[in-house]
Amino acid sequence: SQQGEEDPQALSIQEGENATMNCSYKTSINNLQWYRQNSGRGLVHLILIRSNEREKHSGRLRVTLDTSKKSSSLLITASRAADTASYFCATDGETSGSRLTFGEGTQLTVNP
Amino acid sequence: EAGVVQSPRYKIIEKKQPVAFWCNPISGHNTLYWYRQNLGQGPELLIRYENEEAVDDSQLPKDRFSAERLKGVDSTLKIQPAELGDSAVYLCASSLLAGVGEQFFGPGTRLTVL
C-alpha cells in the first residue's frame, strides 16, 4: 500500500522556473526521503529529512516538512531540462518500522 | 565505485513460465531490498535482507515468489509460475545501514508477461 501521495501527479514548466512538488502521508514518520527516477532507470536518492527537522537544503533543492500536517514539499529552483524525471517521496515510521513506503510520484517535465 | 547491478534488464515470457532476476549490491552493503514497481506508481517492497536473513518478507507473494541471498552478497528473485499481473519493473536496492538512510537502486529488470 502507498503511504505517501504526491501532488501534482504531473508538472510541466519552462527551464529556469521553480518546481514545487508536495507529498502527504498518513501515519507518523521517523524520516522522509525524496528520490528521483529518470525514465527507464533506477531511483536516485536526493535528500533525507528527519521528523524533528523542518527544512533542509541541498544545492538547488529545498525540502520542508510539516509533521502537524503530515506533509512535505520539494522545491527545485532554477530548473533545467535535465531535471525532467519522476520524483517520489518515501517515508519510514513507527508502524512500518524501517520499511520505506513510497508515494506514487510526480512526473516533472522541464521544457528547454 | 560500482553501483547496484541487475540482470537481465528486460525479460519477456509467456504466462506460467518461470523467471529469475539477479542482483549484486554495492560492496559492503549488508542490507538488500527487492521492490516491484508497477507503471505509474512508486516501488513497493517485496523483501528485505540483512546479510543472509530475510527480515521483512511480509509483502512477498509466497505462493509464487521466492528469493534467496546465499552468502549474504548477491541475490536472486524468482517467480514460478508467472502471471499476467506480474508485469512490472523489479528493482533491487542496497544500503549500508539497516533500514536507515539512503538506499541505492539498480536500474531494474522490466518484466513483460504475455
Describe this structure in words.
The complex is a heterodimer of chains A (112) and B (114). Chain A is mainly beta. Helix content of chain A is 0%, strand content 61%. In chain A, strands 2, 4, 5, 9, 10 and 11 form a six-stranded mixed beta sheet that branches. Chain A has a five-stranded antiparallel beta sheet with strand order 1-3-8-7-6, with no helix packed on it. In chain A, a hairpin with a 3-residue loop joins strand 9 and strand 10. Chain A is globular. Chain B has 114 residues and is mainly beta. Chain B is 0% helix and 48% strand. Chain B has no helices and eleven strands. In chain B, strands 2, 4, 5, 6, 9, 10 and 11 form a seven-stranded mixed beta sheet that branches. In chain B, strand 7 and strand 8 form a beta hairpin. At the A-B interface, strand 4, strand 5, strand 9 and strand 10 of A face strand 5 and strand 10 of B.
In short:
The complex is a heterodimer of chains A (112) and B (114). Chain A is an all-beta fold and 112 residues long.
Largest sheet of chain B: 7 strands, mixed
What is the CA-CA span between the terminal residues of chain B? 37 Å
Structural class of chain B: mainly beta
Give the amount of beta strand of chain B, in percent.
Answer: over 45%
Coarse shape of chain B: globular
Helix residue percentage of chain B: under 10%
Q: Would you identify the regions of chain A where 5 or more consecutive residues have pLDDT less than 50?
A: none
Overall body shape of chain A: globular
- Helix fraction of chain A, binned, reads under 10%
What's the helix-strand series of chain A?
EEEEEEEEEEE
Estimate the mean pLDDT confidence of chain A.
92
Q: What's the assembly state of these chains?
A: heterodimer
Q: Tally the beta strands of chain B.
A: 11
Instruction: Say how many strands of chain A there are.
Output: 11
Structural class of chain A: mainly beta
User: Rg of chain B from C-alpha positions?
Assistant: 13 Å
Distance N to C terminus of chain A: 36 Å
Q: What is the arithmetic mean of pLDDT of chain B?
A: 93
% residues in beta strands of chain A: over 45%
Query: What count of helical segments of chain B does DSSP give?
Result: 0
Which spans of chain B of ≥5 residues are poorly predicted at pLDDT below 50? none
